[in-house]
Fold this sequence. Notes:
Chain A contains 8 helices and 2 strands; from the N terminus they run H-H-H-H-H-E-H-E-H-H. Chain A is mainly α. Helix content of chain A is about 70%, strand content about 5%. Chain B folds into 2 domains: about 1-105, no CATH class; about 125-190, no CATH class. Chain B has helices at about 1-15, 25-35, 40-55, 60-100, 105-135, 145-160, 165-170, 170-185, 185-190. Classes of the chains: A mainly alpha, B mainly alpha.
Amino acid sequence: xxxxxxxxxxxxxxxxxxxxxxxxxxxxxxxxxxxxxxxxxxxxxxxxxxxxxxxxxxxxxxxxxxxxxxxxxxxxxxxxxxxxxxxxxxxxxxxxxxxxxxxxxxxxxxxxxxxxxxxxxxxxxxxxxxxxxxxxxxxxxxxxxxxxxxxxxxxxxxxxxxxxxxxxxxxxxxxxxxxxxxxxxxxxxxxxxxxxxxxxxxxxxxxxxxxxxxxx
Amino acid sequence: xxxxxxxxxxxxxxxxxxxxxxxxxxxxxxxxxxxxxxxxxxxxxxxxxxxxxxxxxxxxxxxxxxxxxxxxxxxxxxxxxxxxxxxxxxxxxxxxxxxxxxxxxxxxxxxxxxxxxxxxxxxxxxxxxxxxxxxxxxxxxxxxxxxxxxxxxxxxxxxxxxxxxxxxxxxxxxxxxxxxxxxxxxxxxxx
Lengths: 216, 191
């Protein structure tokens, strides 16, 4: 038990210490580390991200709390959040004055520009996994007209095994909700809470409107 | 004592209002610490954001530690950080507890709602991703900006390619460190 908590603490300490670039990057890193433990399915990880994001507060600490709890209950949650917060806290406390003095140093700037390029790759990976598991999904309960079939493999009707793999079906509602949230955030600059509400509203309403009638 | 109490209330408020994560929370933090209270000057706030980008940890956490230290020394920074991290955690704990105690029918509804929320959360993350992407994109403002942006995008694509292989797949921090070192080597091109 104690060893397990210690390993959770060090795991999250590592995440907190080596992740330059702010909260959203830590989401990418935590996501990959949680996935690497092999204990959780894509769906469970998506649920963790939803819970951590849909609640106020820094996503990084929220997500480590949720992930730690899934690993080892409340004690695990506490270990995870302490691990995530330790390094940033100490770095700011001890190094902030030194770093501020060198903010305009070109070596410093190129170091962090390079880091920001790496960060884009890391965040893109978890964003893409989230899109695959939550946006491009097919729901057998929505009507066929709401399902788009994307065929990458040519026009013939006959489906070979390979072609069926290329053929992905997904329902439109989550795609619309996803796009609406992103556009509201970036284009209209609304408060994130409202953007999230808009997306949730679209997916709930769409689900109500287009749900197949149950066979009587 | 009063300083610490004030720090705690303000940073609980920041934590509860900082919604959507990452850079989306910056305008709110700016309002709370610069506009509503004279705790940080515009310049210091800019430095805090730069610090948060350059040190590990989320922006909100870094600004709590930074502001807390300036106003209340070590214990100021400690309690500001505790308030910032602890308040949302209490909210999550309460939610998780309520979910675990809900009846079976209610639990199904909660699960359905969580599922409905997923595409919206993905949209929020896409917006956050775009704010990360923007600074490295090439701009046509000058020849030099074009070159440096192209190099950085190429570096990002290279990192993405590497991220599918073994050590990087499990430890994405290695990618970030590697990219920073590459940035140092490419200093003559990108700065």
